[in-house]
TrEMBL record:
Gene that this sequence comes from: tgt
Pfam families: TGT (PF01702)
Catalytic function, reaction form: 7-aminomethyl-7-carbaguanine + guanosine(34) in tRNA = 7-aminomethyl-7-carbaguanosine(34) in tRNA + guanine
Keyword set, alphabetical order: Glycosyltransferase, Metal-binding, Queuosine biosynthesis, Transferase, tRNA processing, Zinc
Organism in which the protein naturally occurs: Sulfurimonas aquatica
The enzyme's E.C. designation: 2.4.2.29
Name of the molecule in the record: Queuine tRNA-ribosyltransferase
Active site: D90, D270
Keyword DNA-binding attached: no
InterPro entries given in the database record: TGT, TGT-like_sf, tRNA_ribo_trans-like
Signal peptide: none
Pathway: tRNA modification; tRNA-queuosine biosynthesis
GO molecular function (one): metal ion binding
The protein's required cofactors: Zn(2+)
Length: 372
């Protein structure tokens, strides 16, 4: 991986990340393709209509179905899915958190039962690297111990100590595999934990960033805390992260969350929000959100967003999109998802242009003015 920091506008950063499969301009939002597919879209949509240079797939889900060894036999994620650009794969730590009723973090890994058939499995730091090696992702995430907020000081302390221990085991194993000629085109990121406690965040970031990782993520946020707590935690944490490596805020979030955290120095984001909201009728626009199932759109001839140049907005009216949603027509899911993801990806392109011109503050002001 090559990381080049190109410009700053105060703390906001514009950079380029080069992997074996694509050149990624940051700030970047990564569409979520949990099982190797962005819901309702195919690879051509993601490539040609959205121009995405990187998407996210999930280690836990791909391991259970179809199986990482099957993916490896099929030419790894890029050939299996026919999406030729970069993949980032999450390690499964979030699934242990979100599926806590069927999982249990332990000292040397995470035990869980499959949500598909109830079978028992155990993820260790080394095992998730082996799985992601089979998947062939460009960026793999290490196994971490994520806790819901609020949490006790003792539980957060256990989380960061466990995450640090797993991180050391992970990087030692990953580099040893590379020395054997395995996963040489892949990269690995560590995940900083610590809840909203600043002392714990400093400890976690300092310990992890001393290790030989290709990039660093901030995890364990957007899991129950207030927005201001998230922003303050990110602002505190980034000061302990390297300038010359990517900074990734996991699982965040709304357009406002992206703007606020870019301002604090974050480069990379992912979230299911644009795709999930599209399926539920909520569409993102330059002036805020709309719920397309509203009766007022029944005879509305305007596009979803007058400023948007996506396929959906250039071709169809709000009335038609509303009709598709109300009729439960499958076409709705594709058109709405294209729009929401286009909005997110285009927002990142506009932010990048503003940073390159050192006009991020002005961009942020106009972003919020439109929403008022």
């Amino acid at each position: 991986m090559q990381f080049t920091l190109e410009a700053r506008s105060k703390n906001a950063r514009a950079a380029t990340i080069k992997t074996a499969h694509s050149t990624i301009k940051t700030p970047v939002f990564m569409p979520v393709g949990t099982i190797g597919s962005v819901k309702s879209l195919d690879a051509e949509d993601v490539l040609n209509l959205l121009g995405a240079e990187i998407i996210l797939a999930n280690t836990y889900h791909m391991y259970l179905r179809p199986g990482d060894k099957v993916v490896a036999k099929m030419g790894k994620l890029h050939n299996f899915t026919k999406y030729p650009k970069s993949f980032l794969t999450d390690s499964g730590g979030f699934q242990a958190f979100s599926l806590s009723d069927i999982s249990k973090p332990m000292e040397n890994g995470i035990e869980f039962r499959s949500h598909i058939d109830g079978s028992k499995h155990f993820f260790t730091p080394k095992k998730v690297i082996d799985i992601q090696t089979n998947l062939g992702s460009d960026i793999m995430m290490i196994l971490d111990d994520l806790v819901a907020l609020p949490a006790t000081q003792e539980r957060i302390k256990v989380s960061i100590e466990r995450t640090t221990a797993w991180a050391q085991e992970s990087i030692d194993y990953f580099r040893s595999q590379q020395a054997k000629g395995i996963c040489v085109d892949q990269n690995i990121f560590a995940i900083i934990q610590g809840g909203t406690d600043k002392a714990f965040r400093k400890k976690s970031a300092t310990e992890l960033c001393a290790m030989d990782y290709d990039g660093f993520a901030i995890g364990g946020l957007s899991v129950g805390e207030l927005n201001k707590e998230m922003y303050d935690t990110v602002e505190h944490t980034v000061q302990y992260m390297p300038e010359d490596k990517p900074r990734y805020l996991m699982g965040v979030g709304t357009p406002e969350d992206l703007i606020e955290n870019i301002e604090r120095g974050v480069d990379m984001f992912d979230c299911v929000m644009p795709t999930r909201n599209a399926r539920n009728g909520t569409l993102f626009t330059s002036f805020g959100r709309i719920n397309i199932k509203g009766a007022k759109f029944k005879e509305d001839t305007s596009p979803i967003d007058e400023e948007c140049q996506c396929l959906t907005c250039k071709t169809y009216s709000r009335a038609y999109i509303s009709h598709l949603f109300r009729s439960k027509e499958l076409t709705y899911f594709r058109l709405a998802t294209i729009h929401n993801l286009h909005y997110y990806l285009n927002l990142m392109r506009e932010v990048r242009a503003a940073i390159l011109e050192d006009k991020f503050a002005e961009f942020k002001e106009e972003f919020y003015r439109k929403r008022s």
